[in-house]
Design a protein that fits this description.
Elements (H helix, E strand, L loop, with lengths): L1 E3 L11 E8 L3 H12 L4 E5 L10 E4 L2 E5 L9 H11 L3 E3 L5 E4 L2 E4 L4 H14 L2 H13 L12 E3 L3 H14 L3 E4 L3 E6 L6 E5 L2 E11 L7 E3 L2 E2 L5 E13 L8 E5 L22 E4 L8 H7 L1 E9 L8 H14 L8 E14 L2 H11 L3 E4 L4 H12 L19
Parallel strand pairs: 2-3, 2-13, 3-10, 7-17, 11-14, 13-21
Antiparallel strand pairs: 1-10, 4-5, 6-9, 7-8, 11-12, 12-13, 14-15, 16-19, 16-20, 17-18, 18-19
Helix pairs in contact: 1-5, 1-9, 2-9, 3-4
Length: 409
């Protein structure tokens, strides 16, 4: 275990005892740890990665330092935005332009369900399955009524998720929370009376009164009184491809979800990717804009984009081939100008488990109160649920500092 905030030796780790153990170091889970610590509880956070932030992390990519790897936004909710600003001392500014969804050249509000339903209907037509076609037609009609427009614009830190990670690290250093990085949790063993928990890790045993898991926590084994509890989760493969381009945008965007473009060569009428979640989607984010390299990129007429694609269809393809094909689809989708050329590319493949809210509720019913579950798939929605727990919290303005850098891609 790589540990911070504790001088515990390896032998003592067999007897580590906490009120609560948080599995995962995503922003939401770290805020939950800080909330419990403020309530007077002794808390530990375990994460198998060597950096904090979960999917919200930064890396050095060639000449570009401390850029976020991933396509992020925070679901619009004034309560979530205000709480994040209050807790982290990090200003969230209005995203310009606002995130949107793009289907065959038509732009929709990002929260609008219509492009997803159109995309699902298109795939149903391709399958020639009459039941699927009828279902997707009915589903589309149900969502044709315009959704109520939100008066709250999307907001995001001016320097991206790096601001969130740095602020969290600063608060953690000031807290008594024990942070164990590079610690893989193999199993969660809960006593028969559900009053104690043993987290079996690759570096020792961590005992607590309760354990907290989230939507994306990779819970492998769970038992109560020695009785195994079945865990239903989806293991979702993803690709992040970062493109350093010489060129400009054809259509202004900060974050866009694109439908109707295929990864298969010679066909741009299919979605960029197929996924059981989102109905086939590729996310594109201007990560250069949310970095310290913004001005330099603008002066040189360059872009630094991250494209997130779920799915296995690019297994075995090298990074250059992947990047060239993605650029071709961005050109076809009219997101970048035709003269845009590829300078350099980086690629990351990872797998993310996902448990639905229904599954989280079931596990909580079977193993609670020793097992607590949190919806962490969406930071904005998760922060809304945290708002009542935190109440009015006064925090000092945090000082900026360099965050640990993830391994180079």
């Amino acid at each position: 275990m790589e540990e911070r905030n504790s001088s515990t030796t390896r032998r003592d780790r067999e007897l580590l005892l906490y009120d609560g153990v948080i599995i995962g170091a995503s922003p939401y889970m770290l805020l939950e740890a800080l909330r419990l610590e403020e309530a007077g509880q002794r808390v530990a956070v375990l994460d198998r990665r060597d950096v904090v932030g979960g999917a919200w992390y930064i890396a050095d990519l060639g000449e570009f330092t401390e850029v976020e790897v991933g396509c992020h936004y925070i679901e619009r909710c004034s309560t979530a935005y205000d709480l994040l600003e209050e807790l982290l001392g990090t200003e969230l500014v209005e995203m310009r332009p606002q995130p949107f969804a793009l289907y065959r050249g038509l732009a929709f509000d990002r929260a609008c369900a219509i492009p997803r339903k159109l995309n699902a209907l298109h795939r149903g037509l391709e399958s020639r399955n009459l039941k699927r076609i009828i279902y997707h037609c009915w589903d589309l009609v149900r969502h044709l009524r315009p959704a109520p427009r939100s008066d709250t614009p999307y907001r995001y830190p001016d320097r991206g998720c790096r601001s969130i990670v740095q602020a969290l690290l600063t608060r953690l250093e000031r807290s008594s929370v024990d942070l164990f990085l590079g610690t893989d949790v193999k199993a969660i063993e809960i006593s028969e009376d559900r009053r104690s928990v043993a987290c079996v890790t690759d570096s020792g045993l961590v005992r607590s009164t309760f354990v907290v898991v989230g939507s994306c926590t990779d819970v492998r084994e769970l038992s109560v009184g020695g009785r195994p509890i079945e865990i239903q989760k989806k293991q979702m493969p993803h690709h992040n491809i970062i493109l350093h381009l010489h060129g400009t945008k054809k259509r202004p965007f900060s974050y866009v979800e694109s439908f109707g473009i295929s990864l298969q060569r010679g066909n741009h009428h299919q979605p960029l990717a197929s996924s059981s979640i989102g109905g086939g989607i590729a996310r594109v984010s201007d990560i250069g804009f949310y970095s310290d390299h913004r001005e330099r990129l603008e002066e040189r007429g360059e872009l630094l984009l991250c494209v997130h694609v779920p799915g296995e269809q690019w297994e075995g393809k090298d990074t250059d081939d992947f990047a060239t094909n993605i650029l071709d689809k961005l050109l076809r989708g009219r997101l970048v100008e035709k003269k845009a050329t590829l300078v350099q590319a980086w690629r990351e493949k990872y797998e993310s488990p996902l448990m639905t809210q229904t599954e989280l509720d079931r596990l909580k019913q079977e193993a609670g109160p020793a097992l607590q579950t949190k919806f962490t798939f969406d930071l904005g929605l998760g922060m809304t649920s945290l708002a009542d727990s935190w109440g009015s919290v006064e925090c000092d303005q945090v000082a900026t500092r360099a965050a640990p850098i993830a391994p180079k891609l």
